[in-house]
Amino acid sequence: MLTFEFILIGKTTWNYPLLIAIILIAVIYLALIHRFAKEHFVPFQPISFFISCALFLFIAASPFAIISHLSFSLHMVQMSILYFIIPPLMMLGIPEQLLNQLPRFPKHKWLTLPRLSPKNALYTFATLFLLYHLPFILTIIAGNPLLKNGYLFLLFALSFSMWKPLASPDPLFRLCTCKMKRYAFISGVAITPACLLFIGSAFLGYTGNPLFDQLIAHLCGPANLDALPIMPWPFNTKYDQVLAGFLMIGLHKLSLFMTLRLERKISIHFYEGLESEVEKRCV
After folding, report:
1. What is the dihedral of CA 161, 95, 249, 123, to 10 degrees?
2. Reported pTM
């Protein structure tokens, strides 16, 4: 009997160029912190940044990047970490002082691209994220590596914009507490259709996994390999798709809760200074 260990033999290796790139980013981050913001950062910020780098290595450069093609639930864990957890952790890990010290490059009108507001970025991300997981679109995208990578990179860029009101390195670009909660609620509503898509399609009887099919085609495996018991139950069944939907909902809500708590903890000195300034003006 074929097993996924046999099918993926020799393929579950690390993406060493990406691994080196992330390590270089971490080294540059440390050098910049030491040079520009040695005395102006919260101790938890480097931890937040390095956790985001470690998570990115795990879901994009480790063997998990290949294994995540084997089921919808593993795929949604990968996508949720990439778009819901890594961006806020990375942004909250950048000290405001470091951001202010970075060089300002001259801008020319003919080079300036139109910028989406965070709310429009959220709606655009939610729409593209939903479209990506429609079965017929996912089949087309999964069969074109260049299109797939470009699509995923666009989603990753949009994810930073949509998290900006909650986790921007500059506290002045974040929303106030009450507006943060409203924005978090809107974010949850916008992401929900993609989650319901998995749950609904499972009960409608669709259990095909285009990502798995494309992986098998890339590995030159037989076309009917997805019908063989490679993965244990309940992977690649309707229960796997239902689990994928609930995992995405849960990880998104967890990321919102985590971001709101970390933002308050990292910016405690900013809020204390703001409160003292208000008290002085009221005297």
Report:
1. -10
2. 0.82
DSSP state of 114: P
Contact present, 46 and 33 (Cβ < 8 Å) = yes
Of 187, 168, 122, 131, give the one whose Cα is nearest residue 262.
168
For each of the chain's 283 residues, which pLDDT tens digit applies?
A: 444 554 455 555 788 899 999 999 999 999 988 887 777 677 888 999 999 999 999 999 888 887 777 778 888 899 999 999 999 999 999 888 787 776 654 544 443 445 778 899 999 999 999 998 887 787 788 778 888 889 999 999 999 999 999 998 888 888 888 889 899 999 999 999 988 887 877 666 655 555 555 544 444 444 444 444 455 555 556 788 888 889 999 999 999 999 999 988 887 766 666 556 655 555 5
Distance CA 49, CA 134 (A): 33
Residue 36 sits at the vertex; the CA angle it makes with 175 and 103, to the nearest 5 degrees, is: 75
Distance CA 212, CA 217 (A): 9
Structure tokens at 15: 């993406």
DSSP one-letter code for 143: T
What is the rounded CA–CA span in Å between residue 85 and residue 56? 10
1's CB contacts (< 8 A; 6+ apart) are 228, 229
Dist CA 204 CA 218 (whole Å) = 29
